[in-house]
Each structure stands twice: as C-alpha cells, then as structure tokens.
Amino acid sequence: INNALIYAKKAVQVSPSAFNHANLACLYYKNGQISVAEKEIKIAIGLEPANKTYPLILKKIQLSLQ
Questions:
Q1: pLDDT in tens, 11-32
Q2: CA distance 7 to 32
Q3: Helix 2-14 and helix 18-30: axis angle, to 10°?
Q4: Which of the 8 DSSP states describes residue 41?
Q5: Residues of the domain holding 59
Q6: What is the mean pLDDT of the chain?
Q7: How many CB atoms lie within 10 A of CB 51?
Q8: CATH number of the domain that residue 47 is part of
Q9: CA–CA separation, 29 and 50 (whole Å)
Q10: What are phi and psi of 60, to 5 degrees?
Q11: For the chain, what is the domain count?
Q12: On the CB side of 10, how many CA atoms lie within 13 Å of its CA?
C-alpha cells in the first residue's frame, strides 16, 4: 500500500483528475487514513459530480467513521 500511495499522490500532482483523486481516496481508506480518504473522494465528486460511483465510495468511507 505504501508504494501505491506514493505513486497515487504523484499521479494527483501530475494530473489532478477525479479518477486520480478517487484512486488516492481508496488507497488512503485501505491504509486506515479515513479522514484523508474522505477529503480526497469529496474532491473527486467536485470534479466529476455526474459520476455515480464516487458517492458510493464516500458513503462507505463515512460509514467507517461511525
């Protein structure tokens, strides 16, 4: 996960697309960094509000905060 996080962060720097932010959010989530994951997926939703998958990811992340 740590190497994946490094590359995902670089991907967001190079191309801050919704997909890259969502990918980074999922990696943060899997690494137990829930609040950072929530921030990243919210950025993805802001960049691509029509995407129906991103709100589902956000819901999963928020459920784990409870």
A1: 999 999 999 999 999 999 999 9
A2: 18
A3: 160
A4: H
A5: 2-65
A6: 97
A7: 15
A8: 1.25.40.10
A9: 22
A10: -60, -45
A11: 1
A12: 6
Q: At what angle do helices 34-47 and 53-65 cross, to 10 degrees?
A: 160
How far is the C-alpha of 41 from the C-alpha of 48, rounded, in Å? Answer: 10
Residue with tokens 């959010």: 25
Q: What is the pLDDT of residues 39-62, one digit of tens each?
A: 999 999 999 999 999 999 999 999
In the numeric block, the tokens 């929530």 are attached to 38
Closest C-alpha among 49, 66, 63, 3 to residue 21: 49
Q: Is residue 60 within 8 Å of residue 41, measured between CB atoms? A: no
Q: Which residue has the tokens 């993805």?
A: 44
Residue with tokens 């989530």: 29
| pTM for this predicted structure | 0.94
